[in-house]
């Protein structure tokens, strides 16, 4: 498999109008990332396959992250990715926030398309703490995303409990669908506002069989929606200390209580047969965006963005763009290996009934083999 040619074709497809020299620099940096370099300027530069000294390759990567032309072309690249993958009328798009550093200075807001176990990033923005999780930030993000998606596209937006009722209203204003989790503190009514109760009253009714309620949430500004209640079977997982004992810290206990709560999902999807099961199946796909964050940040499992020390928003934004292009290339390489039934060559076991490795991991192994 000529992975270099495949990578060049993919990057060229999403950057068709880019200056040839700048496009070559992007391809070389993406190739460096996909070949195992961490998402830092120095590591990317050292990984560039060139006759130049490493010092000059590092400078080349550094200049690319400060390139104003590439920064202006960034929305065009994301738009090309959206047109390439959002061909369905109702694609499932997960949106979530993620911290970009331990100091909590920069935060990532990402929209990602659910795709065979790994989400493909469609659009993302970097924000400081002052604009994180603000309604105005969300509204502008949705507006920009709507401009990138095909005109005929009417996506289903999936979010966790961090996105509240104003978010649902903004999605409805665009004519889109939403599936979002509702958590305490929140109130609901199923009798047109005659009686309001805390949503914890519903938790006792949760079971493996999803239940539906035509309801309103947010007592101060009632919002009509369909509520789906579901409690999945306990996985029996425990967070352990180094000696194997169960963690009993305040944070661990808080997380355990949160994970034991059932899913209460608000949606505006059209009612039809097996509607509740459809809502649960759609929300299950939200975990893909969490895995995409890990694939981007983790040095052990992904592209090593956690090592990056960049402080300027525009440099972080372009470094994320290169990381996303590398991730896209790796996922598509993984798809190619799966289609040609070569994925089992990279397994450490002999399972034949399922794909053991993620698409991105398969792509990384393909790049390592050249």
From TrEMBL:
The chain crosses the membrane at residues 316-339. The keyword Membrane applies. One of its GO terms (molecular function) is DNA binding. This is IS4 family transposase. It comes from Rheinheimera lutimaris. Residues 238-258 are annotated as: Disordered. The keyword Zinc-finger does not apply. Residues 92-325 form the Transposase IS4-like domain. PANTHER family: TRANSPOSASE OF TN10 (PTHR35404:SF8). Keywords: Membrane, Transmembrane, Transmembrane helix. InterPro entries: IS4-like_transpos, RNaseH-like_sf, Transposase_11. Pfam families: DDE_Tnp_1. One of its GO terms (biological process) is DNA transposition.
């Amino acid at each position: 498999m000529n992975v270099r040619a495949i990578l060049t074709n993919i990057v060229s497809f999403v950057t068709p109008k880019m200056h040839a020299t700048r496009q070559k620099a992007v391809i070389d940096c993406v190739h460096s990332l996909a070949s195992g370099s961490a998402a830092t300027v120095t590591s990317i530069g050292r990984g560039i396959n060139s006759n130049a000294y490493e010092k000059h390759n590092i400078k080349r990567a550094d200049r690319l992250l400060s390139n104003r032309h590439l920064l202006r072309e960034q929305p065009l690249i994301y738009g090309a990715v959206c047109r390439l993958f959002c061909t369905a009328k109702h694609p499932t798009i997960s949106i979530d926030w993620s911290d970009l550093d331990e100091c909590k200075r920069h935060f990532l807001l990402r929209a990602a398309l659910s795709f065979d176990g790994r989400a493909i990033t469609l659009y993302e923005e970097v924000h400081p703490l002052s604009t994180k999780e603000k309604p105005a930030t969300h509204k502008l993000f949705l507006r920009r995303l709507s401009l990138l998606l095909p005109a005929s596209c009417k996506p289903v937006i999936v979010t966790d409990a961090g996105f509240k009722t104003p978010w649902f209203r903004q999605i409805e204003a665009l004519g889109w669908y939403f599936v979002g989790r509702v958590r305490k503190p929140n109130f609901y009514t199923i009798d047109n506002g005659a009686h309001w109760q805390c949503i914890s009253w519903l938790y006792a009714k949760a079971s493996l069989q999803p239940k539906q309620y035509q309801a309103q949430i947010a007592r101060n500004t009632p919002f009509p929606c369909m509520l789906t209640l579901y409690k999945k079977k306990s996985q029996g997982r425990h967070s352990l200390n180094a000696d194997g004992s169960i963690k009993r810290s305040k944070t661990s206990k808080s997380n355990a209580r949160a994970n034991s709560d059932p899913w209460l999902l608000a949606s505006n999807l059209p009612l039809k047969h097996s509607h509740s099961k459809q809502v649960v199946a759609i929300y299950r796909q939200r975990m893909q965006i969490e895995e995409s964050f890990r694939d981007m940040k983790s040095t052990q499992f992904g592209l090593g963005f956690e090592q990056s020390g960049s402080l300027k928003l525009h440099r972080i934004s372009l470094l994320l763009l290169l990381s996303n292009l590398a991730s896209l290339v790796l996922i598509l390489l993984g798809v190619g290996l799966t289609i040609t039934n070569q994925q089992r060559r990279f397994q450490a076991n002999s399972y034949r009934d399922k794909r053991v490795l993620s698409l991105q991991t398969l792509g990384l192994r393909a790049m390592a083999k050249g």
